[in-house]
Specification:
It is globular and about 75 Å long. 40% of the residues lie in helices and 21% in strands. With 366 residues, the protein is an alpha+beta fold. The protein has 3 domains: 57 residues, no CATH class; 167 residues, no CATH class; 128 residues, no CATH class. Strands 8-9-10-11 form a 4-stranded mixed beta sheet. It has a 3-stranded antiparallel beta sheet with strand order 6-5-7. The chain has a two-stranded antiparallel ribbon with strand order 1-2. The protein starts with a helix and ends in a 23-residue tail after the last helix. This is CTP synthase.
Amino acid sequence: MRTHTELEQLCNEAERNLRCFYPTTNAIRRATHVRLQNGYIVRPFRNVYARTAYWSTLNPAEQMRHIIRALSQQFPNRIFAGISAAAMMHLDYNWKLHADGTIFIAGKTGNSKQTYRKLRRIIVADPPTSVLLSSRERGGKIRMTMAENTSATQVTATSDIINAVTITSPARTLVDCGLRYSFAQSLSLFDSAMRQGLTTTELIIDICDDMQIDCGRIFRLLYYMSPLSENGGESLCRAVIIEAGFAVPQLQRVFADPDAPWKQYRVDFCWHTPDGRLIILEYDGTQKYVNPEMTNRRSIQDVVHQEKEREDVLRKAGATTIIRATFDEVLLQTPLIQKLIEAGVPLAGAVPSFAAPTNAGWQKAC
């Protein structure tokens, strides 16, 4: 197959700017169709394309961001909403929410029969909006910034801006996601938005006040959310704990080695029980053992040895029980719940002080 220079240039530019491409001439459209048939190019959305080899290197969230940036160029007046807006803000959530490839936009009316099946509207008349701008700095690095209460069409074009995407505001995005998805699926979105300082409880409540539907699910998420949760896996783990009726744990508590106080370890979750026990739960994502950035390029044996040393210090610091849970155990729920039962983690209803988040108000970890 001969190289089509214009198409290759279009692909190169799109990949450099972290988006998919769309044909701009009939000649490129024909060349794209031929390469789509032989597998060189993939079409993840209507009139949105990418080179297959490049596309396969992207995770589901980044694939969504590439599609949305291309669509925003084609339709600059569109306001992306729901999980699509969450993806653009790099919030934490389970990538399975992108399994059907749906893109969500804000609209005054619902979908019609003529609407593309992968495009879904969230009905809202005049949502508060933000614009996510991608600009290229010296050296080629891309920087992301957010402009509040504006739209992509209002942004002054400059040579360094490579992408401008209008989304619903962080508060509105969280409300839409919280109403659509389960508590366990949504808690990580709320945790990460608060951790990044993207919105406030007051702004979310203001959104709910203007809606004529029951927002009880949102208020439950507001009650339990915490910026102390460091990643989506920890948020999901905490959601499972809460949903199963266990006492809400303290988050990110720091323990010092009694024999060497300068050695300190921070644990993911812990409980102080009424009978004086200290139960610690450590969430072990697989990245902890295989991601070079997280292991400092140490071998798995070295990482495991350090974990053993860590546990010894925690026991000297007063831990009576240490539980370890993997992502798969959290996802399946039953293995995690069984470990919590065996460790004697108290139920929320058994001790009134456990009924509320122990980090309410996100005060410092105790």
